[in-house]
Amino acid sequence: MAIDVQSGPGGFAGEVRGADLERAGDFSAIHRAFLDHGVIVMRDCSLTPEAQIAFSRRFGPLMGRRPSTPDKVLMPGLPEIVILSNRKVNGETVGITDAGRYWHSDLCFEEKPNMATILHAVEVPPEGGDTLFADLQQAYETLPDTLKSRIDGKRAAHTFRKHYLEVMAAGSPRPPLTQEQFEALALNYHPIARTHPETGRKTLFVNPGHTTEIEGMDEAESQDVLDALFEHCLQPEFIYRHQWKAGDTVIWDNRRVMHNAEPYDMDRYTRHMHRSCIHGDKPY
Ligand SMILES: [Fe+2]
Q1: How does DSSP assign 215-274, residue by residue?
Q2: How many Cβ atoms from other residues are within 10 Å of residue 259's Cβ?
Q3: In this predicted structure, what is the pLDDT of residue 177?
Q4: Could you tell me which of 55, 101, 90, 75 has the C-alpha nearest to residue 64?
Q5: What DSSP element (H or E) covers 42?
Q6: What number of CA atoms fall less than 13 Å from residue 53's CA on the CB side?
Q7: Distance in angstroms (rounded) separating the CA atoms of residues 49 and 146
Q8: Could you tell me the pLDDT band of residue 8, with boundaries at 50, 70 and 90?
Q9: From ligand 1's centre to the CA of 146, what distance in Å?
């Protein structure tokens, strides 16, 4: 069966058909689709955690264990796989229950943010729990000139501190960090418009979850520009909504996409996913 890609409007997000994640010879077509479409979906994958790791490694080195990730959410014996799940075993949830419920790009606040994320659905709810993706490449290309000139050559700060303060203010049950731990959370500056290292295309690299301020602007102007950028990026024509089915494997390019996980009824349904992440480069 020939490999075929069906993509959404504007070429954003594609469904790759006829490819096998475990067949080495199929990787270059999958990788091409990933670069062309920013998000790719493959249906009906029977992907073991071992096979997911082997496939993920074809993209590049995998992200290892992070100090902020508790051991209990890592796949036993395979710490490259993080479990996102509300499934309970012996009364304890086996994964992260509420990951990524806001617009963000994975680990954008690190000096070298994640290149790609690979998420495989084992069990999904019949309703809710969709993931939304926004195409920041199309968003950059359609940016009004007035806004483009305001961000030209500028960098923005990215940090996990902002999201942490927001979830704590909203009453999160997570244990609070000490002042020292809070200050140790990463903060890095990246170009607002970055160049994709593999396609050479320019793309916005800001998101409401982690981008806090624009370097060299006063607070009011910085907020004004960021609000205008976010409003532009979140127009419906730049968004792909993925409604999960069990067996889906979705791969997205964090260098040109931001995403947002919607909630679902955790008392009624189970959602169980395996995530692997690929290291990236310093944005330029
Ligand atoms: Fe995420």
Answers
A1: TTS-HHHHHHHHHHHHHHHTSGGGEEEE---TT-EEEEETTTEEEEEPP--TTT---EEE
A2: 25
A3: 86
A4: 75
A5: strand 39-42
A6: 12
A7: 47
A8: confident
A9: 31
